[in-house]
Amino acid sequence: MFAELLPRVEGLIELAARANLNLTIDAEECDRLELSLDVFEALAAHIAQRHPQWQGFGLAVQAYQTRSLAVIDEVARIARAHGLRFMLRLVKGAYWDGEIKRAQEGGLPTYPVFTHKHHTDISYVACARALIQHAEVIYPQFATHNAGTIAAILQMARAAEAPFELQRLHGMGEGVYREVMKDGSVPCRVYAPVGEHRDLLAYLVRRLLENGANSSFVHQLADETVAAEELLASPLQAVTALAFPLPGDLYGPSRRNSTGADLSCLAMRQPFDDALASVQVEAVSAASADEVTATMARLQSGFAGWSARPVNERAALLRRAADALDARCPEFCALLIKEAHKTLGDCIAEVREAVDFCRYYAEQAESKLQEQVLPGPTGESNVLRLHGRGVFVCISPWNFPLAIFAGQVVAALVTGNTVAAKPAEQTPVVARRFIALLYEVGVPEDAVAWLHGAGETVGAALVADARTAGLCFTGSTPVARLINRTLAAKDGAIVPLIAETGGLNAMVVDSSALPEQVIDAVVQSAFRSAGQRCSALRLMCVHEGIADGLIEMLKGALAELRLGDPALLATDVGPVIDGEAFGGITRHIQRLRGEARLLGETPPASIVPHLVSPVAFEIARIADLKEEIFGPVLHVVRWGPGQAGAGGAVDVGAVVAQINALGYGLTLGVQTRIDSRAQRIADTARVGNVYVNRNMIGAVVGVQPFGGEGLSGTGPKAGGPHYLYRFCGEQTLTVNTAAAGGNAELLAGLS
Predict the structure, then answer these.
(1) What is the pLDDT of residues 48-73, one digit of tens each?
(2) Are 143 and 89 in contact (CB under 8 A)?
(3) Is 500 a catalytic site residue?
(4) How many whole angstroms from its chain centre is CA 619?
(5) Which pTM does this prediction carry?
(6) pLDDT digits (tens, 9 = 90+) for 297-326
(7) Which of 534, 541, 618, 628 is catalytic?
(8) Peptide bond into 716 cis (omega under 30)
(9) Distance between CA atoms of 40 and 34, rounded to whole angstroms?
(10) Is 534 among the catalytic positions?
């Protein structure tokens, strides 16, 4: 990044310094703060060497960040170290809501921003005082529309005889500054965005939302019902209640959020680096036919005792497993990197998903599996009871060898089944470690067992076994069909099948979509995890009016992705799972090079085996996509009136109809700024998960229940409120309470 970014900014510095203009760098995202300061210091060294007398270079600091005071001190240190004087623009801050959401999604220990507005107001004044104290190396620029804050700044700056300026946004705060400017000694700069309508609309909407918020000084100033005493109340006030729950408490008291990590923080990253250096992936041997038979017999024998345990007791064991897994996240991440070739960010997300499955299914079991009293005639009781079916076979894939494996297993366990768990043959060790963890927290060995081996041998034996009372499978559609046929051909009870399979997942992009937002969502959805997610984007359907520009941006984004060793934090895309997958994806790409138009690809790398460069091709019609390619390959098709002659989709309705005709129904992305269109697409699409104006991957347990229909699976959705029912048998118990000689309850009510 430094090699590309610094020369470009240094070029701007040369122009600004020669013209003696101001140039301010924004430092907005909390997770890039340290990186922003590194860039700032590198640019300061350049200025000290080339333009030491220039004082127009600066940084914007956001007072809502809890580290804002430390940033000011760091900027002052950099200035003194290089013999420079900087401008520092102090703002309350933008994108506060985005920082809150990121912390919640990431399961961070706390928020990187203040969660009460008056705390931000206090921080702003504290930062203003710090800037004034550093006046010999910093020229303070105070951007605020708050009259109370302005008064405090004027008082502090005048007492210290420190130079400063105030700033306001064009079109906002005019009433306040009309009064301020009556004092001709107060310098004020009015700033405004410059650019085209399409670029500025989102910016202006954001500013309006911020300044129009109920808590905003500008909003309250215009509200005649707000008294002056309330408007100008001191922000120095005690608060006993949280503004909203901490990230760990996001889901309420009954289910704790899984713990994440901010990998930009060295202290949080260190345990993962240590685990990667020490964890070993041991060799394992496949189960023999005799071992499969003996294991199924043991599990069948253990069923009576396990299913008889109260559901609250089974749920408690799941919570203990979740806590243990949460605490050992670095160890399991290291296993996933070494065995499944996942990047660290993907590993943390996967461990968190497994933890969430344990806690969510424990919560669901306690609320859904209790006896339910049903209404009926007097003199009779009717109760619906749910129970385990017997030995449940769980067969999981290699692309989520911990999360999907754990989700299947604990769902079957908590509903009272015993479980024969067969992981993918490529990733058996992380699955075995999870089963060992279940034993450690108290799950008996006759309730769950790990069986390693090929699908054609161990998997087939489990499916065919007469003791199999239910089967949960995640994998390819052809294998799911084979399992379904095998189960249907068996004598005895009809065995339920829960199947989640693949998808030809599409994203519909209309002409109103924000290009930068689209490209970010596309890159994440199509190429993260090397495209090895069943939810991954395979087909982008883009309106012809914006297609050329969007394709050019996609080409640039592909060029910036970094292929390499998944153990390195700088790696965006690691290798595919094995040589067989590499060969199949490579052959498909070679075919596309002859049949489709290459749009862009990531430069190849040969650091580690089985690296497939992310690549995008344009195809003529949606129907030309015949099969799922489980890798970083994106197909792009245009839609709009100009596509009629080529047999393409002419409007968004035709796009959705053609996507439905593919037969799969797992995930669908929608990129549009027209709410009614997004809703209409969701209503007509036959898919399990629709994502509007965001990426299409990373479904969160209990938040975005995941699963498809058609060729994409049977349902019910994993991580959803209906999932556990499929693992259960049902019994209705009806008792004639009047059989003892009369209806005592009814007779007791006679007056």
Answers:
(1) 999 999 999 999 999 999 999 999 99
(2) yes
(3) yes
(4) 30
(5) 0.92
(6) 999 999 999 999 999 999 999 999 999 999
(7) 534
(8) yes
(9) 10
(10) yes
